[in-house]
Specification:
Layout (H helix, E strand, L loop, with lengths): L1 H20 L5 H4 L8 H10 L10 H9 L14 H11 L4 E3 L4 H13 L4 E3 L6 H13 L4 E3 L1
Parallel strand pairs: 1-3, 2-3
Helix pairs in contact: 3-5, 4-5
Length: about 150
């Protein structure tokens, strides 16, 4: 356990070092026109699937950065709309979005909300049975789920 915590500390120090060297670079600076081939799909998904009329501050920039394949480190207040930052790109991108959270109730709430919106999502926690784990891994293998909460 101690080695694991030390590894996390080293990784955080490395992230801090890396990000403190670089100026904040919004996606618009990486793409000066601020226009992307996926703009319409992003807005259609935001409004049509998530039923949200517009983005909150900084959400669109972070989503565009993610869709460009660039890692993001985002700090936002509770209720600031962080979940959308990985949920929306997960629907437009290939592969899976894996979210790790220590809060089981948050995981269950998000999975329930995503399923109510018609978005495939699963929760995999330590209490999952072997058959439940097998079912989820089979879904992933067959391409059935886009969001996995751990």
């Amino acid at each position: 356990k101690r080695r694991f915590l030390e590894k996390i500390k080293r990784n955080l120090r490395e992230c801090k070092r890396k990000f403190s060297r670089q100026p904040d670079t919004p996606s618009s600076a990486l793409n000066p026109t601020g226009r992307f081939s996926w703009d319409q799909r992003v807005m259609d998904t935001l409004r049509g699937i998530f039923k949200i009329p517009s983005f909150r501050p900084h959400q669109k920039e972070v989503i565009n950065t993610t869709l460009q394949g660039i890692d993001s480190f985002v700090i936002m207040p509770t209720g600031g709309g962080k979940s959308l930052l990985y949920q929306l790109p997960a629907l437009l991108g290939r592969g899976y979005t894996v979210v790790v959270s220590p809060l089981l109730s948050l995981i269950q709430d998000q999975v329930t909300q995503l399923k109510q919106l018609g978005i495939p999502a699963e929760a995999l926690c330590s209490a999952a049975t072997k058959s439940e784990k097998s079912r989820i891994f089979k879904l992933m293998y067959e391409g059935g789920g886009k969001n996995l909460r751990l």
